[in-house]
Amino acid sequence: MSKGGEAVYIPDDSDFNTFRDQCESQEGWNRQYNKAGVMVWSQAQEESHTVQKIKMQITCRDVLPETLYDVLHDTCYRKKWDSNMIETYDIGRLTVNTDVGYYSWRCPSPLKNRDFVTLRSWLPLGKDYMIINYSVKHPKYPPRKDFVRAVSLQTGYLIKAAGNRGSILYYLTQVDPRGSLPKWVVNKVSQYVAPKAMKKIYKAGLKYPEWKRKHNPGFKPWVYPEQNTLPSISLAELSLQHAESLENIDESSLTEDRARISDEEA
């Protein structure tokens, strides 16, 4: 996602427009799943070694777009609904709508758990909202021995209004998990894990207004930048996270019969 190939930069309007176009376009996407209001597509890349893109869409009735936007930003609430998450926190801010953060998540056993450091930007456009990120390196947050550092080439959400009180949520991701994953893992992601993840966000959106009323209801630094108390960081502190500089874990020989993907993990 970086411009010029190497420099860390803050996404601009053209990046958000390109992301929106990818979410809404059908051209070049192969539908993998369509059930109960959830659709999943994949996009094979021209070069065989390039990581494939996955795109998901779910219709969220009775959840306002601004509510989903809050759900995806609110790290305190994320601990309530994202059972895959091990840890997440914000590291620092670059601008009023760009920050750097850390996220680690559980992978289905017997795979190793993964983590990210990403630069994230967000943009409200009327009733539509976008959040996009890509992986960066921060000198104070190097790869850890207990995780495989994964690389987000581009990941994000597009939230659109649908009807009077509903939303359509798109999630698009191109992530290098740093590891030669077995084919069954890739299949499970599109057929099982991805749809479940989208349904979790929908359920989280339904419950968020009531939860937020009891948990610091006026605190939304992603909406009110003056509430943001994160330390300022500069682009000069960051560099692009190149996948090839990270350890590559070969997990391709792990068999599916050892995998445990429960409703909680998926």
The first-to-last residue Cα distance is: 28 Å
CATH architecture: 2-Layer Sandwich
CATH topology: Alpha-D-Glucose-1,6-Bisphosphate, Chain A, domain 4
The helix/strand series, from N terminus to C terminus, equals HEEEHHEEEEEEEEHEE
Number of domains: 1
CATH superfamily: START domain
| Number of helices, counting only DSSP H or I runs of 4 residues or more | 4
Question: Which helices and strands occur, and which strands form pairs?
Answer:
Blueprint: H1 13-24, E1 30-35, E2 38-43, E3 53-60, H2 65-73, H3 75-81, E4 85-95, E5 98-105, E6 114-125, E7 128-137, E8 148-149, E9 151-162, E10 166-176, E11 179-180, H4 183-213, E12 239-240, E13 249-250
Parallel strand pairs: 6-8, 11-13
Antiparallel strand pairs: 1-2, 2-3, 3-10, 4-5, 5-6, 6-7, 7-9, 7-12, 9-10
Helix pairs in contact: 2-4
